[in-house]
Amino acid sequence: KLTSLALQPAITPELVHGRVHLKCSYSRPSAKPPLQYLVVWSRLSTPGKKEQIQRDTTPQSFSYVEMNGRNLGLGDTVFCTVTAFSRDASEQQSLPEESKGFYAGIKFLPETLQIAEDGKEHVLTILSTVPIACPGQDDPCKITLQLSTEDLGKNSQLPGPPNIALSACQVDLLRAPCAESSCAAAAVTVTAVTDFAQDGNHVSRIRAEPVGRRDLLWRAYTPKDVKVTVRDLPTGNCYSFTDPHIITFDGCTSRAFEVHVRQWDCGGHRSATACNCGVAAR
């Protein structure tokens, strides 16, 4: 048998005749007679289990598989396994070598967010690991994603009001040369909503959904949600009561703000007591 040849297969995305393909490339050692290569494509069907989708026998140092949205679609993790064998003696085979898994689809960086109710903006990068095809002459080479948020409640138990805010409701992924696992990218900022309530930590999720695409590859695809944990922070209280007494957040704060209070006589004839009936703050 042939020993391990260090073929080092690797998967990269490409557009071939306007359609999305994955290319498995591997090094071709010099050998006489020349070698043939068996390339087996597979995808992760369930955790820990691979499903074969294509087999190629080729003298070339590469093999292609098309992402057609049927046997291979967005959201799949794809592998290629390469075995070399002698053209004259097919029983002389090298040890099979498998590529790293290639995730084809939309990725979020970071994949999860831990933020606090402190008003800070956190950047969420959205990228496509596959190139954006141009569906037609009049259609732009981009993918539009509709973004939405959903609060899963305290400790993911009950739904509630929004706990996060996004800087945009839609983003466009414009086609760009593929580099470093990104063929198109956009960014939004995520901020925790300050609700002035001691209500514990909340979990929300961000969903992205492709809109306006007619091709099967993108139309049937929904990227995985992003989980956002919002950490509750202590909230100060200020008070105004009776005739009037105003207590600031920490009891002594001096800053540029105004508080106007309106009182009315609520004690009647027996006692002179004032109650607040209106307040305005700036």
UniProtKB/TrEMBL annotation:
* Swiss-Prot/TrEMBL keywords: Disulfide bond, Signal
One GO CC annotation, please? cell surface
Please report a single Pfam family linked to this protein.
Ig_VWDE
* Gene Ontology MF terms in the entry: signaling receptor binding
Where, by residue number, does the polypeptide cross the bilayer? none
Question: Which InterPro entries has this protein been placed in?
Answer: Dev_Signal_Modulators, Ig_VWDE
Domain VWDE-like Ig-like, by residue range, is 2-104
* PANTHER family to which the protein is assigned, alphabetical: EGF-LIKE-DOMAIN, MULTIPLE 7, 8, VON WILLEBRAND FACTOR D AND EGF DOMAIN-CONTAINING PROTEIN
Q: What is this protein called?
A: VWDE protein
